[in-house]
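seq:
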Amino acid sequence: MKGDISKKELNLLYEITSNSRTPLNQIAKKLNLSQQGLSYRLSKLEDSNVLLNYFTLFDYSCLGYNNFRVFLNLNSTDEINLKKIIDYLCSHGSVLSVNHCGGKWDLIVTFAARNISRFNKELKSLLSQFPNSIKSYSVLTNIVAYNLGKRYLSETSSHPNTKIIGGDRELVKIDAIDRQLIKEIFYNPKITYVSLASKYKLNPKTIINKIKSLEAKGIIKGYSCVIDCYKFNYLSNKILIKYHNPSTKVEDELLKFCRLNKNITNVVKVIGEWDLEIDTENKDFHDFKHLCSTIRSKFGDNIYNFDTCHVFSNIKTAYLPTNFFSETF
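struct:
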């Protein structure tokens, strides 16, 4: 038991974060629960804001987008000023995610743009919107992200089902129906095939085949949800690494280490002030400290700079900008 959440509920969270579209009867059977009992537990997790919202993992690079992470240091973090900035970012059509942090950085914001010129315009617009609020900023360009899942939730989870997002990918052609289905499953990741078939007056098999095709093409990488790990007494942090002597071998060894550590949920190769960004969720500060010490001990000769950032909350999480739905091609 962690906090007020049982082991059964943690296992349920693991199943839902691994694939939120898995039929509940399948999860119930796997967890040895009745479907009614599982539905009750799921509702309890949603009502208590342990499970915050659902999302679809899109590979934005397949649709012609690049990913830029902006670390913001604010002059003032009073609640009113902070809320204005967060509201602006959450409603922004190019913003994928917003994290509220502690330490050197107050907010970490992820933008998706078709090119660096477009991103520059969005960044300058943000800076001009809040000229007296943003003290400094740092920009990282994403190369590729490795989504490793939340394996720490389950004692029986094994090797991660790594979802690779970004990297060197070709633009994937999609048709008008694909675009509509992407929009539907973006705004409602749990929408049923039957509902989609009824809405677009298509055979359910056609809908299933179209979505399976989007998955096969790599546009859709999976279905998950945002959870608040603080509700069961876990801490969320980022580790930032700059290599001293960057090499493919060192990167591969560090990535292998991350895949073997259940508390590491995401790893991103970036260009900028840092080379690698690692997301972790640990049971307490000592556990996180041990992870940091292990990384520095194993890879210290190749690390030029090492920093950490405490993440208070994931305010917004998406893998496709809403601008995509208003753009023409």
